[in-house]
Every structure is written in C-alpha cells, then in structure tokens.
Write a structure and sequence with these properties.
Layout: H1 5-14, H2 20-50, H3 54-62, H4 68-100
Helix pairs in contact: 2-4, 3-4
C-alpha cells in the first residue's frame, strides 16, 4: 500500500512501533469498536423503552398497524441490531489482520 508521505509520517509518529498498515488496522478497529458501542446503546435504549427484546417487538410490529413513532423506532432499532452484527464481524476481521501483522 502506498500512502502519502504526510500520512505515513503521522502514522509513524502516533504508532511508532507499528507499520503504517498496522496503524490503519488499529484505527479501523478503534472505529468499529466505537460504532459497536453506539449501536449497543441504541438497542438497549429501545429495549428499555419497550420493555422487550427486538425480536419480540418486531413480531408485534409486523402483526399490527403501528403508530408512526413505533414504526420509526422499529426501523431505527433494526438498524442498531444490524449494526451490532456488522461491527462484531468487522472487529473479528480486523483482529485477524492484527494477528497476521
């Protein structure tokens, strides 16, 4: 991977014991972990608001004509659940790259 000199210099300054590629993996891992936390917080807020897990809420929504707020919450909650799964998979991939380095 060819990086601009300024980015490579910053990577060496901020991560002196890592190659520029390893530094990028570290930064991506940090971002994925932050995103995971964000999605987990969202999901917990919906679980608390509706006093149930997403799958139970989903079945109720699909079996009824929900109010617009509940319908929007369904889409946002689904985004959070999907985001959690995506970020866990991404973290797993990035940790595997860390081990290879």
């Amino acid at each position: 991977m060819v990086l601009p000199v300024t980015i490579e210099a910053s990577a060496k300054r901020l991560f002196p014991n890592l190659s520029p590629e390893q530094a990028i993996v570290e930064l991506l891992l940090e971002r994925a972990q932050r995103n995971l936390i964000k999605y987990q917080v969202m999901a917990r807020e919906f679980e608390k608001k509706y006093d149930r897990d997403f799958e139970t809420f989903r079945k109720k929504i699909l079996a009824s004509k929900p109010k617009s707020e509940a319908e929007q919450d369904y889409f946002d909650w689904e985004l959070a659940v999907t985001g959690i799964a995506d970020m866990k998979a991404e973290i797993k991939r990035l940790k595997a790259l860390q081990k290879k380095s």
